[in-house]
Amino acid sequence: xxxxxxxxxxxxxxxxxxxxxxxxxxxxxxxxxxxxxxxxxxxxxxxxxxxxxxxxxxxxxxxxxxxxxxxxxxxxxxxxxxxxxxxxxxxxxxxxxxxxxxxxxxxxxxxxxxxxxxxxxxxxxxxxxxxxxxxxxxxxxxxxxxxxxxxxxxxxxxxxxxxxxxxxxxxxxxxxxxxxxxxxxxxxxxxxxxxxxxxxxxxxxxxxxxxxxxxxxxxxxxxxxxxxxxxxxxxxxxxxxxxxxxxxxxxxxxxxxxxxxxxxxxxxxxxxxxxxxxxxxxxxxxxxxxxxxxxxxxxxxxxxxxxxxxxxxxxxxxxxxxxxxxxxxxxxxxxxxxxxxxxxxxxxxxxxxxxxxxxxxxxxxxxxxxxxxxxxxxxxxxxxxxxxxxxxxxxxxxxxxxxxxxxxxxxxxxxxxxxxxxxxxxxxxxxxxxxxxxxxxxxxxxxxxxxxxxxxxxxxxxxxxxxxxxxxxxxxxxxxxxxxxx
Length: 486
Ligand SMILES: *[C@@H]1O[C@H](CO)[C@@H](O)[C@H](O)[C@H]1NC(C)=O
Ligand SMILES: *[C@@H]1O[C@H](CO)[C@@H](O)[C@H](O)[C@H]1NC(C)=O
Ligand SMILES: *[C@@H]1O[C@H](CO)[C@@H](O)[C@H](O)[C@H]1NC(C)=O
Ligand SMILES: *[C@@H]1O[C@H](CO)[C@@H](O)[C@H](O)[C@H]1NC(C)=O
Ligand SMILES: *[C@@H]1O[C@H](CO)[C@@H](O)[C@H](O)[C@H]1NC(C)=O
Fold this sequence. Notes:
- 10% of the residues lie in helices and 33% in strands.
- By secondary structure, it is mainly beta.
- It has 3 domains: 47-56 and 224-326; 89-218, no CATH class; 331-485, Galactose-binding domain-like (Jelly Rolls), CATH 2.60.120.260.
- The strands form 5 sheets. Strands 1, 2, 10, 11, 12, 13, 14 and 15 form an 8-stranded antiparallel β-sheet that branches. A 6-stranded antiparallel β-sheet has the order 16-18-19-26-21-24, with no helix packed on it. It has a 5-stranded antiparallel β-sheet with strand order 3-9-6-7-5, covered by helices on one side.
- The longest helix has 16 residues, at 2-17.
- The two termini are 48 Å apart.
- The chain binds 2-acetamido-2-deoxy-beta-D-glucopyranose (5 copies).
């Protein structure tokens, strides 16, 4: 009762100190500046841009140059409709490391197409296709299929090999074999045998290069991806791409590489309305039956199979579509599990969040159910005495420590709004972002509508995140809090 009495006194004192009369959030007041809440209208996937770019991109390769070159890192061939020169990006981590030579397993491969023979007049062509990895030469004393399949087995991403003779190529003489074995991460068909040589590589009078007996073996249509660290598989593979809100753009990759797509998502700049990338959709574009590119679309709202409905357009088909969601270590970062009422209410804690006040502070960190206050959804957190009873800062923290891994870097993301009181009263607004009790960054937004902030931290394991701030009437609203593996 003493507490209540004190609080009433301080409320009166605080209120009389203010020139204007702000109805506090706890009394269901209104924003001074109407809340710029998340509006996802018009933010759906721009499938037309993706399809149009897929029709112009050429990321098909053949086995050229010297044999046994290391497999390149996955490279980005286009970003948001702009074609990039197909140079392997150093920012993409090596995804396909040639593994140790596995036990030979020819039984897991099936013949996709035969060669056309080795007679003096027989001519064939090698595959020019997507997902090219590297090539070797195999002992040509026989048509050495087993050695070629073993080569594929030695490369983790390999699912398909094209075995053929290439004549009049002096580059191959060093290896004493003209029998080339080219490895791919995607399966190709006889219709893609389009490189028939025709190059003058040897000195005349030796003739142009030509191809004979070009066959293809496959162990799977496409490589089975590993789930990238920091992400979880949501659906797939299916033949539909997401048409979903919160779309941030796309990249084309030269391999079906979920890890490279995850890296695009993790490193993509935040959207000012929606924040960091939280989800990606990777799929293979097949044009006229031929694998053409690997699309990586990014979103700030996690999607799922229910919106993976776009199967293609014209001669372009969507295949092998998978969705991956970035794992948020913060449970209920949007406070949407706070459902104590269906209209307007607030509390100092719920099952996943705890708000604390110091000394005789009253309601200095609270959770509100009230859609007009939220950045998205129905609920939001508030720092600063909910009813303006005091000008003390409160602390908001998850009820349980985060399931972090020691030594890993994480990115804390959140939305902040300090636009409830008039500008002069919101001027002192602040938020301390705390990691294991230590302030890692103090944000002084002044009078500010919803804005996204990101702070990098290093984990020690079971880390404690907290937000400390608010000094009524310089209230701070917080919403859509995330902690992602950086
Ligand atoms: C959301 O944005 C659309 C288009 O930008 C606009 O027409 C609509 O009124 C906005 N909705 C709200 C609730 O502000
Ligand atoms: C390859 O050739 C063999 C022998 O002529 C034949 O039996 C087989 O059906 C052919 N396979 C394909 C996929 O063309
Ligand atoms: C890897 O990329 C480099 C530079 O583009 C290229 O010269 C090399 O041939 C590529 N390696 C393979 C195996 O294709
Ligand atoms: C094997 O390859 C070498 C080098 O190109 C060539 O000289 C030789 O004639 C080939 N042997 C057979 C049996 O094709
Ligand atoms: C899938 O996404 C839709 C749209 O956001 C949502 O309504 C639905 O609950 C989601 N389904 C699952 C299983 O998460």
